[in-house]
Amino acid sequence: MNPITILEVLALLAFAGFLAGSESAINSISRIAVDQIAEKSPKRAVVVRKVTNEPARYLNVVLLVRKACELTATVFVAESFLQIIDNSALAITTAITIMLVLSYVVVGVGPRTLGKQRASGWAVPATYVAYFLAKILGPVTTLLIAIGNAITPGRGFRTGPFASEAELRDLVDQAHERGLVEESEHEMIHSVFELGDTLVRELMVPRTEMVWIEGSKSLRQALSLALRSGFSRIPVIDENLDTIVGIAYVKDLALRSHEYHEAEQSEKVDEHLRSATFVPETKTASELLKEMQRDQIHLAIVVDEYGGTAGLITIEDILEEIVGEIADEHDDDLDEFEWIDEDQGRASARLHLEDLAEYLKIELSDEEQEDVDTIGGYMAKILGRVPIPGSTLTLHGWQITAERIVGRRHRIGTILVERNNSEATTKQSL
Fold it and tell me: Is 220 part of any domain?
């Protein structure tokens, strides 16, 4: 083989290898790395940003030139072997085998690996070469892409193939399997994608668990409810829960009471309301999150298709769908039931009503057990509203008192059971 031909083939393969590494470097470089380049050399960063902001436009040109170099080198090698070997089939087979190995190693594996490993260092010369080639051959690649899209069935691509959401999810899964993404991060990324398909009714606090207050109540009563329930924003109703007239902010009521002490008794809650935001239960969580961020809304009332109150939702409810449950520092594992002494015990609000009856050695009627399973549910049924700390009732000679709240949603976590010497009847006390 002619020494000049050998040098030409090696030069073509070397340049093709550089272009292959450039593709890998441009695809792998992060925005943070580009920012670091800009800090060191603002002038160089101008070209780097142009290429990385529109990679498809420049990579198409790089791909074209790389393929041209590989094919040209293959032709040179084949021509040389045809002159040396009389058997043309053997000559072509030898040339193809040699170029296949060289292309795979010199152009494929080696440069691509280096380009990915040293993306930051390779990116500057790679982007300059890509930018220069695009200036010269850009119209050619645009024409070739247009021709390819014209003869390809289905919809074509203006700048080449792009990654879909499914491909991005698969990429995240691969990164997780390789240990590049933590389990919590992996779940969080998938939760972000799923947020667009999650409806508000799946995340809301249902109306049966809402804490509310009548507009006719005094400021003192509203503040007492806020302190006992732990909520800083409380929906205010008129006639019933389907007629919510606004939202009472505890800070507004506390400020008014501080500035004018007599207002605690003389003024009503409905005199100090903020407007309520109503959203349909079919709205997606992602849309609602954007609206809450834009309008600076913390709480919204969810309505059903008939206009009735279905529940409420806060911005924390949506964030929990992404980051997972936000546990309270006081949340702990509660025993189902424990005796403090022979006349007093403490139980979890999630304790089954029948199990409580066993501990207390009482018998419950079918009517008492109807529609409820837990002691917390029974309290809500008898009281007609969500129990808050201090809510009490009597059950077959036992006084049941809602004790402390747990969780971000301030649900009752424990109840105190005390023997009551009064008549064993079921009564409610607010």
Answer: yes
User: Does residue 209 share a domain with residue 230?
Assistant: yes
> What is the torsional sign of CA 264, 270, 275, 278?
positive
Residue with tokens 């000049």: 4
**Residue among 66, 74, 64, 68 at smallest CA distance from 21:** 66
In the numeric block, the tokens 């979890």 are attached to: 348
My answer on whether 70 and 131 are in the same domain is: yes
In terms of residue numbers, what domain contains 106?
3-151
Radius of gyration of the chain (CA): 36
Residue 268 in 3-state DSSP?
Answer: strand
Please tell me the total count of domains within the chain.
4
User: Is 332 a domain residue?
Assistant: no
346, amino acid identity? R
| pLDDT by 10-residue block (mean), the chain, 430 residues | 80 87 80 77 78 77 85 87 84 86 80 79 82 80 68 52 60 75 78 83 86 91 87 90 92 90 89 92 90 91 90 89 64 68 86 86 83 82 82 88 74 83 44
Beta bridge partners, 6, equal: none
Residues 6+ apart with CB under 8 A from 306: none
- Tell me, yes or no, whether 370 and 233 share the same domain: no
